[in-house]
Amino acid sequence: EYALRNDKIMPKADITISLEDRGYQFGDGIYEVIRFYDGELFHLDAHLARLDISARQINLTLPLSMDALARRLKELTALSKIGDGKIYLQITRGVSRRAHAFPEETEPLLTAYTEEVARPLSQLATGIGAITVQDNRWLRVDIKSLNLLPNVLAKQKAKEAGAVEAIFIRDGHVTEASASNVFGIRNGVIYTHPVSPFILNGITRQALKVLAEKVGIQWVDEAFTEQELMEMDEVIMTNTVLEVCPVISINGQPVGKGQPGQHTIRLQQAFAEEIAVLKRG
Ligand code: PMP
């Protein structure tokens, strides 16, 4: 098994992380999760563009160029010999004596490794359950930072309730979920929270927007209330691993007819077609 450390690919077991790494001590860093199917990286450029934005937001300089990083990630994926999987990549502000302010000389530390992950076919077919929770995160969740404690706690709450995801409510409105974006479909129109500091602009969200246009489903970037969420005909969640997943119950109440709806299925088909095209190369 191999992993990337800055610009070098090495055996995963040879990578050691310092106790004084700022990612470990402060969560001072950013990350990405990138999907690959049949060893082909999916929306790599969009993930790298978002990584670049996150890095700039926290004044982090990448230890290698974006082109070099893209090459290394492709090499790493090929070396893994995994068909369907993901890359987890993070960059921290590196190692220094513990003090909150940035160290004088920072050497950011980038690490990445692959993991096999099958497509979540049964969840995609039957849908998942969710709960709603208060969005108590900070006001810059558009930055894909390592600080995920509120997300961790929300997801755990969902799990304990027998659900898969926790939908965040801020000032009465749905923002996103603990690890995914949220969409509601009403009378054939798809609604979702606009891109803002209150959501992470998901790569799968961006892909879904293109697909909605392609299949002729009207898209509205507009936040909706928790009440409106409960009255949607269909609800969808997206992320890099979950893909385009139907939500069939929220807080124990069925969404629409309590099964994946027609628009959701249409969007899932379009997404599956995009994967098929990637696999054909
Ligand atoms: N929102 C949050 C809070 C997330 O953690 C994620 C997944 N990283 C997403 C949205 C979806 O992003 P993407 O489609 O890029 O995986």
Automatic annotation (TrEMBL):
Cofactor: pyridoxal 5'-phosphate
Enzymatic reactions: D-alanine + 2-oxoglutarate = D-glutamate + pyruvate
Any one GO biological process: D-amino acid metabolic process
EC number, UniProt record: 2.6.1.21
Pfam families per record: Aminotran_4
GO cellular component: cytosol
Entry keywords, A to Z: Aminotransferase, Pyridoxal phosphate, Transferase
GO molecular function: D-alanine-2-oxoglutarate aminotransferase activity; pyridoxal phosphate binding
Keyword presence, Transferase: yes
Family matches, as InterPro entries: Aminotrans_IV, Aminotrans_IV_CS, Aminotransferase-like, BCAT-like_C, BCAT-like_N, Class-IV_PLP-Dep_Aminotrnsfr, D_amino_transT
Family statement: Belongs to the class-IV pyridoxal-phosphate-dependent aminotransferase family.
Subunit composition and interactions: Homodimer.
Record function comment: Acts on the D-isomers of alanine, leucine, aspartate, glutamate, aminobutyrate, norvaline and asparagine. The enzyme transfers an amino group from a substrate D-amino acid to the pyridoxal phosphate cofactor to form pyridoxamine and an alpha-keto acid in the first half-reaction.
Protein name per its UniProtKB record: D-alanine aminotransferase
